[in-house]
Amino acid sequence: MAGGGQFEVIGFDADDTLWRNEDSFQAAELMFAEIVAPYSPEGIAVLDVLHATEADNIPISGYGVKAFALSMIQAAVTATGGRVPASVIGSLVDHAHQMLMHPVELLDGVPETLSTVGQTNRLVLITKGDLVHQTRKVRTSGLEHHFEHIKVVLDKDVASYRGVLAEWDIDPSTFLMVGNSLRSDILPIVELGGHGVHVPYHTTWEHEVVHDHNGGFAELAQIGDLPTWLADS
Ligand SMILES: [Mg+2]
Q1: Ligand 1 center–CA 21 separation, angstroms
Q2: Annotation: CATH topology of 9-19+105-232
Q3: Where in the chain is the domain with CATH 1.10.150.240?
Q4: Considering the domain 22-101, what is its CATH architecture?
Q5: pLDDT tens digits, one per residue of 37-95
Q6: Which residue ranges does the chain devote to CATH 3.40.50.1000?
Q7: By mean pLDDT, which of 29-33, 75-79, 137-141, 212-216 is the weakest?
Q8: How far is the CA of 129 from the centre of ligand 1 (A)?
Q9: b/e for 74-95, b at 16 or more Cβ within 10 A?
Q10: How far is the CA of 97 from the centre of ligand 1 (A)?
């Protein structure tokens, strides 16, 4: 099988590419709305307040559950004019702790796919978010041994990918990135002269949604289709 011979290294995103992630944030938002809305004035959309707070805080606190927890607390106070009780704040903090400790749930076909493509290509993992939580997820996922390098980055933009690939001595033109986010996983790599395979997750965080792009990448319905795509490409 000549599969994937044109790609020296294949990089994988982690959240919503190898394991479930966004579902837990959406569940947390529903919980937030349910317990905060009763204390907010009529006509205040508490989820809009949360989303705006999250967007404002990304440059300050970055991505991940801990940043999200701070945004939930801030938004709960803002959306209720300070009337939210301490018991509700306690529930938000407890929920965030549960999210941090929740076991990793792998997506279908992930271990098999990594085993297969790992026979023909070098594999690396590039994920963004909270260093402690992401590291814990990688360690407990049972997938760590598939990857030659693992990196948790602050943000996944052209500059950060350029830095990581240079550090690992990988020529972008021989690099293929696989991920669920066009904004974070695919478009920056294509801009660098690399290659992308977009595997959409069933839901995408609003912040990651991109409507305008020039293509230049492939799209697969599921990660399990990757070995066949590599063999045919
Ligand atoms: Mg992702």
Answers
A1: 8
A2: Rossmann fold (3.40.50)
A3: 22-101
A4: Orthogonal Bundle (1.10)
A5: 999 999 999 999 999 999 999 999 988 999 999 999 999 999 999 999 999 999 999 99
A6: 9-19+105-232
A7: 212-216
A8: 10
A9: bbbbbbbeeebeeebbebbeeb
A10: 21
Q: How many whole angstroms from 176 Cα to the centroid of ligand 1? A: 15
Alpha-carbon distance 36 to 82, whole Å?
Answer: 11
Q: How far is the CA of 64 from the centre of ligand 1 (A)?
A: 11
CA dihedral of 106, 21, 192, 207, whole degrees rounded to 10 = 160
Cα of 8 from ligand 1 centre, angstroms: 22
Q: For residue 11, how far is its CA from the centre of ligand 1 (angstroms)?
A: 12
**Cα(132) to centroid(ligand 1), Å:** 17
